[in-house]
Amino acid sequence: MSFSSMLMRFGLGLAALAGLMTSPARAQSDEPGCRPEMASLRLPVQRAALAKDEVRLTFVGHATFLIETPGGIRAATDYNDYVRPRETPDIATMNKAHSTHNSRNPDPAIKQVLPGWDSGGQGAAKHDVTLGDMRVRNVPTNIRSYSGATDYDGNSMFVFEIGDLCIAHLGHLHHPLEPGHLRALGRVDIVLFPVDGSYTLDQEGMVEVLKSLQAKVMIPMHFFGGSSLERFLRRTDGVWATERKAEPTITLAKAGLPAQPTIIVLPGN
Question: Where would one find the signal peptide in this protein (predicted)?
Fold first, then answer.
């Protein structure tokens, strides 16, 4: 091999190495915008104590919220390996739609890891756990498989009961809710719902779901770049009031909920 050929191969090798070093890491998901850098949110460790009738919600990103109780119990929704709160939660709920909604390596310090599906394939998942002043239970839903088939009862919505407040996280909901789902959910004060309109239920269907739930606070999640969120808010203009918050954390109490159903937008994606 000539000396010039050796130099050419060496240069190509350096270029390839540089490309590997500078190319961004990608999440193992076919959803847009779900990359590990989303996990850059760092929550303050010290926060004001909650009154006995309050709950604190922080939108960590994508479909992950940190829910905190007056007793210090923390739950993370759709806990995954890319978007995580800084603090290790006591309870982690997951769904199996994509890798940005579940974790293969949950923190071993988590006391309760609750997948929204039965890993043994024996039907619907069944969870009803109480830890401190938080009760968490699931309501099974169907989910589309990668082949397009329906996996009946293959996923879950999760309900968090803290004092007098009832919070429902709809997860990766793919279909309208039937009367049986509504009965199982019960009264919902705060609902966390996806608005992308394509990977999950279409936006028209989601509006109908929200109307059926009649929650006083509705917090959108699972939107990409903000365009799907803005499209949803234009659709609901005149249907519900909308409040936009500057910070991703909000403290709520039963007595302080809005008189009329209100969409509250927390910054995130």
Answer: 1-27
